[in-house]
Amino acid sequence: MSARKRTVVLISGRGSNMTALIAAASNPDYPAEIVGVISDRANAAGLGIAAARGIATKVISRADHSSKEAHDGAIDAALVSFGAEIVALAGYMRILGARFVEKWLGRMINIHPALLPAFKGLDTHARALRAGIRIHGCTVHFVTLDMDDGPIIAQAAVPVMVGDNEDTLAARVLKAEHRLYPLALGLVAEGKARMEGGRTVLAHFADDADNSTSVVMAPDPLREETDLEHLARITP
Q1: Binding positions for N(1)-(5-phospho-beta-D-ribosyl)glycinamide (predicted)?
Q2: Using CA atoms, how far apart are residues 17 and 112, in angstroms rounded to an integer?
């Protein structure tokens, strides 16, 4: 097995997707290792989770820097100090500047709680419910200059249930995120997903053939139990 790709995760809060990546990387056969976690908020709960798992953490607050460019520069310096090869945004709530994004282009990925290109930005679950869509989900994509607009690496879909509110839908999508992000990071770390010419290219990768027949359908009402006696009466 080739050397695992050194990955640094950027967070702003609880770090649940960060935790999913750390769990995946605890397997020595996983192609990426999480070597550091950076937060722009000192009170981010994910910092404690990472530290408890023996992962180096660093707080780089916007308030401690004179400008956005200086803040981006401090993050970049920290990434270099960690020896980062891949940057994974996991609930990082600040928009990174053009110079920073261009430096890490093709090596920085993000997870978004919607099926892009639909519902870019914030409040995706509430907006999905207001729109009345029946299928929702999440997307992992390469980060480019435009927010939530980079080439898509992987997506996962979930049904929107009849009785859903924002919280129940968010919880369902989050479970999908925790499965999707480790998959996508693994593809990038192995070189099976790369950004080329503004698109994601999948190479040396075979999809699960069973996946071609899978369907997420909503609403999908409960079926009544079959009345075998009735079937016997009407069956010749």
Answers
A1: 15-17
A2: 11
